[in-house]
Amino acid sequence: MNIKTLFSERGISREYIQDMDKLDGVIITNDDDFTKNLLRGYNYYPVKTASIDVAKKIENIAYETPIIGIGGGKALDIAKKVSYDTNKNLVLIPTAPSHDGLVSKNCSLYINNKRETIPAKYPEELKIPLYLWKNSGRLKKSGICDLISNLIALEDIKLSERLNKESFKEEYKILSESAVDKISYDDRELSEALILSAIAMEETSRYCSGSEHIVERLLEKELNGRYLHGQLAGTGSLISSKLYDIYSDKVHAKNNLFDIVIDKMEKFEVLDFAKEPIKNIDSECLKSLSYMRPERFTIFNVVDSKTADWGYLISELKNL
């Protein structure tokens, strides 16, 4: 997959930057000490919560252009929504490779205390500060876990094609799979993997978000936001792939998905990172998984979460 061609077709320019000089526009960023130091001397809108209400407040006072989103998922998602609603140019500057929403054509915002994926737009410009990415530590691990989770989403798609007779586009399946194949310790390569995954979600997030992200949403709430999005997507990948392993006869899926996920996580040294939240999971809460997004056909439509042996599954993951 040629990133330049994909970007050209979508009107996106990409640039690797070495500083935060010459930022001119409406700056939306995360509300933390790191950002305060990074943007010293600039006026900006700090974001604590990625909600539709926050986006609307900024829209009412954002008179300049372009809209510039700097930071992590919250700031970028708010910037996407503000730009989409006000029809202003969008510049995104992700300060860490923490998730695959760098340029995705959607955003994840809270609406009435419920997180929803809603339409947004591609940025006109993507500026990648590799000088910040090189020291991103756990945030980078989060991004790698988010990419590995595509393996589960793709397996859920196969399941839906086979049992639910849904149709999915081959080009987006290839983009999602290529993103996993392109995972790398090299930050430029990793940025391209995240971009491929983002473009794979052009029409729907399903190519990169399946049962593992349903788990992520549940755990974000149950564990009070203590963990990064990508980290919980990694935890969800372990849980979903183990469920595929346990119920392989019922779902008629390949019986080595769990091993593939484990191998990928071990290769990129994120297995322990993805396992961290498991020690705090109350297996009882997992019984609601089949009823959270039934319209999105996944393994949870085939294996009823109320009857799954979560105690055994969680015990197996703890002993990895």
What is the compact description of this entry?
The chain is α/β, with parallel strands linked by helices and 320 residues long. It is built from 15 helices and eight strands.
Structure in words:
By secondary structure, this protein is of the alpha/beta class. The chain has 2 domains: 3-133, 3-Layer(aba) Sandwich (Rossmann fold); 137-318, Dehydroquinate synthase-like - alpha domain (Dehydroquinate synthase-like, alpha domain). It is built from 15 helices and 8 strands. It has helices at residues 3-10, 33-38, 52-59, 73-86, 130-133, 137-148, 150-164, 170-181, 187-200, 211-222, 229-246, 248-251, 257-267, 271-275, 310-318; strands spanning 13-16, 26-30, 45-47, 67-71, 90-94, 106-111, 114-119, 125-128. It has a 6-stranded parallel sheet, with helices on one face. Helix 4 links the parallel strand 4 (67-71) and strand 5. The longest helix is centred in the last third of the chain and has 18 residues, at 229-246.
CATH topology of the largest domain: Dehydroquinate synthase-like, alpha domain
Radius of gyration: 19 Å
Q: What integer is the average pLDDT? A: 95
Q: What's the shape? A: globular
Please give the share of residues in helix: 40-55%
What are the defining features of this structure?
320 residues; alpha/beta; Rossmann fold; Dehydroquinate synthase-like, alpha domain; 6-stranded parallel β-sheet; two-stranded antiparallel ribbon; 15 helices; 48% helix; 12% strand; globular
